Amino acid sequence: MPYANVGGVALNYEILGPGSGPAMALSPGGRNPYQHIMPIAKEMAANGYRVLLHDRRNCGASDVSFDATRSEYEVWADDLDELLRQFDMAPAIIGGSSSGARLALTFALRHPKSLRALILWRVTGGGFAVKRLAERYYDQYVRLAGEGGMAAVCAEEHFAELIRKRPVNRDKLMAYDPNEFIRIMRAWRAPFVAGAELPLIGTSESDLRSIRVPTCIIPGNDLTHDSKTGEHAARLMPDCEVASLGLVDQDVDIVPAEEWYKMADKIAAIFADFLARKLRQKVAV
């Protein structure tokens, strides 16, 4: 599998679609590997786009690496900007689901010159989502490192999978002092939980109003990604359209992403139509 070096961190990546197609980067939700979003990426590539996929730091087959000087999403956004530049793909259309959408929005705020448009689905906001996700992304690791050191972190399901895919990650993890690892988790947690009262996690009303590129949002349909959150965020953005898959909100913590990827053709068709209209580009298929 190919790797790109970004600031000394090895990031696993793949590029789909024609070399001459408009550049696009897509990111999955959670800390899932990029293969998770492959159904939509393949559809967009089939529509003529050149699609960059990559495993973010601490995801998939990429290196583990922790930097407390920036939020987790700022680290990811800066990595993506560097990747796009390495492959001569900036400016690009940036998209993603859930945490991938948070990455896309952070990218828009930090690297506006590298951005052409946003395509987002299952955006997250509100107290329920913040509480649930803060436990999953940060709190459990603070407890594990405090009680069992870095060996306990390595044994946890997510990090054990990262080690399986890239064995050098075990040595990288074990090199961290548990107290330093806890400090970094708490530093990343702080801006995340501060988003409970914001329209979207990590994105304020003024942030959303400042993003002026064409944006399309397909709201989610569960308690973590409820439809009202997406609709409200879209109203705040100057050039944003809301698209619907005709789904009904479900009273469950989360609808499995796999259910959404069964609709990959419909999702891609919505985005392809939106981009064709807004960017007025002819895409060779």
Q: Can you give me a brief rundown of this structure?
A:
The chain has helices spanning 38-46, 72-86, 99-110, 127-155, 157-165, 168-174, 178-193, 205-210, 227-236, 257-261, 264-279; strands at residues 3-6, 9-16, 23-27, 50-54, 92-97, 115-121, 215-218, 240-242. It is an alpha/beta fold. The protein folds into 2 domains: 3-124 and 209-279, 3-Layer(aba) Sandwich (Rossmann fold); 131-191, no CATH class.
What does the model show?
By secondary structure, the protein is an alpha/beta fold. The chain has two domains: 3-124 and 209-279, Alpha/Beta hydrolase fold, catalytic domain (Rossmann fold); 131-191, no CATH class. 47% of the residues lie in helices and 15% in strands. It is built from eleven helices and eight strands. The protein has an eight-stranded mixed sheet, with helices on both faces. Helix 9 (227-236) links the parallel strand 7 and strand 8 (240-242). Helix 1 (38-46) packs across helix 11. The longest helix has 29 residues, at 127-155. It is globular. The mean pLDDT is 96.
